[in-house]
Amino acid sequence: MKKTKFKLLTLFFLIAFSINSWAQKTQVSGKVVDDQNMPLPGANVIESGTKNGVTTDFDGKFKLDVSKPNAVLSVSYVGFADQSIKLSGSKTNLTVKLVSGANALEQVVVVGYGKSSRKNLTSAVTSVKAEALNRGAISDVGQLLQGKSSGLNISASGDPNRKASVVLRGASTLNSSQGPFYVVDGVPGVDISLVSPDDIATIDVLKDAAATAIYGNRAANGVIMVTTKKGSKEKAQISYSSYVGFEKVSNQLDMMNASQLRAFVTKNNLAFTPENDKGADTNWQKEILRSGALSTSHNLSISGGGEHGNYMASLTTLNREGVILTSDFSRVIAHLAIEQYAFNDNVKFGLNVSNSNTNAQNVAQRNTVLLQAVNHLPVSPVKNADGTYFENFISTGYFNPLALINHGDDDTKTSNLVGNFTTEIKLPFGLKYNLNLAYQKSTTLHGEFYDSYYQKYNSANFYNNPDPPAVHSLINFGTNGSALRNTYTNTNNIIESFLTWDKTFGNHKINAVLGYSWQEDVLGDGFQATTTNFPVDNVSYNNLALSNYSSVSGYRVDFGSSTAYQKTRLVSDFFRLNYNYNDKYLLQGSIRRDGGSVFGVNNRWGYFPSIGGAWRVDKEGFMQNQGVFEDLKLRASYGVTGNSSGFNAYTAQFISGSLGTFYNNGQQIGAYGPNQAANPDLQWEKTSTANIGLDFTVLKGKLSGSVDLYDKRTTGMITSYSVNPILVPIGSIVANGGSMSNKGIEVSLNATPVQTKNFTWSTGMNASHNKNVITKLTNPFFIGGDSIRRVQPEGGGQTGSTLQILKEGKPLGQFFTLEYAGKNANGISQYVAKDGSLTTTPAIGTDYHYAGSAQPKLLLGWSNDFKYKNFDLNIFIRGVFGNKIFNATRADLFRPATAMTTNILVDVENESPSDLNSFKYSSRFIEDGSYIRLDNATLGYNFPQIHKYIKSLRIYSTVNNLFVITKYSGIDPEVEQGGTAPGVDSNNFYPKTRTVLFGLKASF
């Protein structure tokens, strides 16, 4: 009975407390608009000095209960000057007009474990609003950011199933993909495929170590913070967006047609073999392409909320056909975000759940198909008279690309799930406690099937055509069809807990964060199997049980990598302190302590400190009477980050395994022994970055920008070093040793040159320069050479020829090859020998010379927005300058002596078949990779309110890749810039497309 009375008293107290709190509140409502009276959806309206706030709906409207009649509202929106409004009692229909472009330093940016106003940043951070992201049929976040942030080098092909390569401020290591670390809504390491482009609110690119060191060992390549949209405390709102796009190949190689090739062969006294010449005139590049590819997207979202919570749910479908036959991409993303306040809004619970399901249908033997499509003779037909595919296995490496496509399957299904539960508690004395619990699960199901037709290729020396720097290998397709199927699951469990202290003492402001992070990852939990000898072809890889591999002599089932399954753990402590004196002098310091299981037992802990300071010069007394600068801030920072990617859980451990066979007493016996040496001293790669920056706003807010100078140095690069086999049986060990340097400058400018009642022109430009150098490739304990030749495309007659070199004092992507010196008196291509003389018989490696770098000298992005009444036009131009491309594709098609067996380029017309050197990999095929591309142009119209149930309606049309200006002779100059073999075009470029897209956006 006593317990019941106690519960009733408690309930009565809570009700009375709530009623009392409600009675003290004052309701305010209104609308936030820009200087053209257009509504600003997603603007922040906060009661100053509290966490009480809302975001505006699609019409810019808001409704907020404030604690007192004379409260002050703080209204902010990215790209607009903040505004404070002092209330005088209840207000309705309040209109708040924000001035655009005026005060870039007032923007709110997302940083690790918190937010900050740009005016108080001491580090280099670029923020990109959702409306400023690239437009078009884009499913990859990397492409959304292409050209939008200084320092980001992003390259992408036309393949809908391949992510863009993203490199921030130059390559930092030889061991990873160079890609940045993604944090989505506070969850670290999220697979970016979980984010729908339509759900993104802002993206913040953290560049220097002062900004990224709070993420420690995962931040060496930069950190990209993605914030998704949230609901507002208003009535429910329904939004719908959709587009349909039509894609076509923007460019192809200029190969000879049948009449051109026949004339060349006749002129040079050559002849086609009867097996190849069937009197056809086939454009093989065209044959493997769709006449047009279709892309569609639909996004439906519902959002809203009440006084103590909000919600947002969305469903997105993306479908994109590839321009090469059978390639296709489809994805469905479901997203739910809920925030609920309790205990007089002192506690906030949050739940974010996202799930994406992706089906990627790849081109079977994609790179080999691309190679065969340009190699195939136009006088050969696609099919014989009886309807079967034309093949000529007498010619080495000559396979019908259409047959390869239509007799093979290569599919991957991926399911990604992330759930994040957050709790935020306001405590006394300016303290706030956050607890974040996250769970991520990614499951892939991959299948490949090569039907009985592929059995014909087993006797024809079928080599694959991998992306550089991998070397090709011989493939056997079994008997009566072969299949591969695997399924692997990765799971991540994350617990992050941190305490934040915000306190003001007069002119002194302190913000401190102290936290703990725990993460356990299980990778590669699954299995793989291969089999062969199927009774029929139409089951593909879907029923391996139908096969009868045991009857095929010598066949072995491939169960996948022995190191596929891994379990890793990361435990971290972190602390950050921000000090602000009178909004004039700013200081930030942070440190993170990471412990990782992937490293040697003697070095599993690493420390990653940073410090930064800023001086808001415009706040000084001597600046008050000047009329030039509205904002002027000088900042400097230094910090250390680490890299834990590019190596697995067993890199530091001793591993034994199969070593082939040996002959013993008349039998071949399986050998077993060490495959990898242990290294208990293996530790983190560390990257330190020093940064000096200047932020400014001039001309009464019409022009703002920033300039950054940085020096980024990586030490202790992890790679494999040669060792005396007496000391280490396998002759090599993975250890720390190498180092790399990146130095650069970044400039960003934003301006509003014209602003009238009906017309506005705003423009933004960013430019960046980076110089990359490998400063060390040796380890003091494992001395070896200071250079490594690599990248072997292995074109016909060029086995062993390499294109690049890793060398101390040279950049990653340094070309090292023969130096072409024209033709001698006999019309034979000649080259510069090691001693400077000319030779027609150059030696591989010995007579090589340095021949330029794949690293660009300048990256440029230029965006222009024009608004006239209800019309808007965006034009975005992107450029890359000063980089070289090794056009190995051109070299392999520059073989006049083999014109009767493989096709050649049109501009080989004047070459002589007697010149057997014409195609050698050399500086002759190194070209300027600079280009300017009109990346996208969008024209839209915003309808005024046309119906009481339709709040807004916008229609638009976008053209992607309208044109490119370049001297490069290949398909497209945007070749791979990521990885450790950048700038190599090697018969593997999936053609880029030109897209015309029509779309609409509506809210109800």
TrEMBL record:
Any Pfam family hit: Plug
Q: How does it sit in the membrane?
A: Multi-pass membrane protein
Q: Which UniProt keywords apply?
A: Cell outer membrane, Membrane, Receptor, Signal, TonB box, Transmembrane, Transmembrane beta strand, Transport
Q: Spell out the InterPro entries in the cross-references.
A: Beta-barrel_TonB (IPR000531), Beta-barrel_TonB_sf (IPR036942), CarboxyPept-like_regulatory (IPR008969), Plug_dom (IPR012910), Plug_dom_sf (IPR037066), TonB-dep_OMP_SusC/RagA (IPR023996), TonB-dep_OMP_SusC/RagA_CS (IPR023997), TonB-dep_rcpt-like (IPR039426)
Domain TonB-dependent receptor plug, chain residue ranges per copy: 119-223
Its Gene Ontology cellular component terms are:
cell outer membrane
Classify the source by domain of life: Bacteria
SUPFAM superfamilies given in the database record = Carboxypeptidase regulatory domain-like, Porins
Secretion signal, residue range per the UniProt entry: 1-23
Location in or out of the cell? Cell outer membrane
In what residue span(s) does the TonB-dependent receptor-like beta-barrel domain sit?
A: 387-962
Q: In which family does this protein belong, per the annotation?
A: Belongs to the TonB-dependent receptor family.
Q: What is the name of the protein in this document?
A: TonB-dependent receptor
Species annotation: Flavobacterium sufflavum
